């Protein structure tokens, strides 16, 4: 009976030793394992970020200047077309009045005047189309310039930030949800405006 008790105590002692070894081994492994918690430096664990394009267009000085310039050009074009259109309508009304009052010396002279007014209408239509096309091309040029400017700025910014992916976001188009620490919009806007101010001084 004593032998059996001795054997059982020996087995329990060995089991306790094994448990201690397993416990300390697990603890050491856990302590040495990389943390999955996000630190202040997001690039250490999840190297991604996003830029809100709407905010860039609203706060980037060059974007505001380009938008204002395009708006002025659009308003000038519209004013020019409206003025020519009023002039055309006025001439059409004058022709109609003269024709009804038999003010033309001959039918040939009336037809010449009608042809002249019709030519003015065709020229106005061509001018409106040309100006509209110029505005469209200018919008494309400005958009391309803005896109290049933002891309170059982000490339420069990322030399020190070391993000693997930087998303563009407009409203909820690309990023449906992200913690604010992944939003680098303000940093990009600051750099864009600094670069623009520097270029403007040259």
TrEMBL record:
<keyword id="KW-0812">Transmembrane</keyword>
<keyword id="KW-1133">Transmembrane helix</keyword>
<dbReference type="GO" id="GO:0005829">
    <property type="term" value="C:cytosol"/>
</dbReference>
<dbReference type="InterPro" id="IPR024930">
    <property type="entry name" value="Skp_dom_sf"/>
</dbReference>
<feature type="transmembrane region" description="Helical">
    <location>
        <begin position="6"/>
        <end position="24"/>
    </location>
</feature>
<dbReference type="InterPro" id="IPR005632">
    <property type="entry name" value="Chaperone_Skp"/>
</dbReference>
<keyword id="KW-0472">Membrane</keyword>
<protein>
    <submittedName>
        <fullName>Outer membrane protein</fullName>
    </submittedName>
</protein>
<dbReference type="GO" id="GO:0050821">
    <property type="term" value="P:protein stabilization"/>
</dbReference>
<dbReference type="Pfam" id="PF03938">
    <property type="entry name" value="OmpH"/>
</dbReference>
<keyword id="KW-0732">Signal</keyword>
<dbReference type="GO" id="GO:0051082">
    <property type="term" value="F:unfolded protein binding"/>
</dbReference>
<comment type="similarity">
    <text>Belongs to the Skp family.</text>
</comment>
């Amino acid at each position: 009976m004593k032998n059996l008790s001795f054997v059982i105590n020996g087995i329990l002692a060995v089991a306790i030793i094994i448990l201690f070894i397993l416990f300390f081994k697990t603890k050491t492994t856990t302590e040495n394992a990389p943390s999955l918690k996000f630190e202040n430096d997001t690039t250490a664990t999840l190297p991604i970020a996003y830029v809100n394009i709407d905010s860039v267009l609203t706060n980037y000085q060059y974007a505001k200047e380009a938008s204002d310039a395009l708006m002025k050009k659009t308003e000038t074009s519209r004013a020019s077309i409206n003025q020519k259109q009023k002039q055309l309508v006025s001439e059409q009304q004058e022709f109609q009045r003269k024709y009804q009052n038999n003010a033309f010396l001959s039918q040939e002279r009336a037809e010449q005047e009608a042809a002249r007014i019709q030519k003015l209408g065709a020229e106005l239509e061509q001018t409106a189309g040309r100006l509209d096309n110029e505005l469209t091309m200018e919008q494309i040029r400005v958009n391309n310039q803005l896109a290049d400017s933002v891309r170059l700025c982000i490339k420069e910014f990322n030399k020190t930030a070391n993000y693997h992916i930087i998303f563009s976001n407009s409203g909820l188009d690309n990023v449906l949800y992200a913690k604010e620490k992944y939003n680098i919009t303000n940093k990009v806007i600051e750099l864009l405006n600094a670069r623009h101010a520097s270029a403007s001084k040259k």
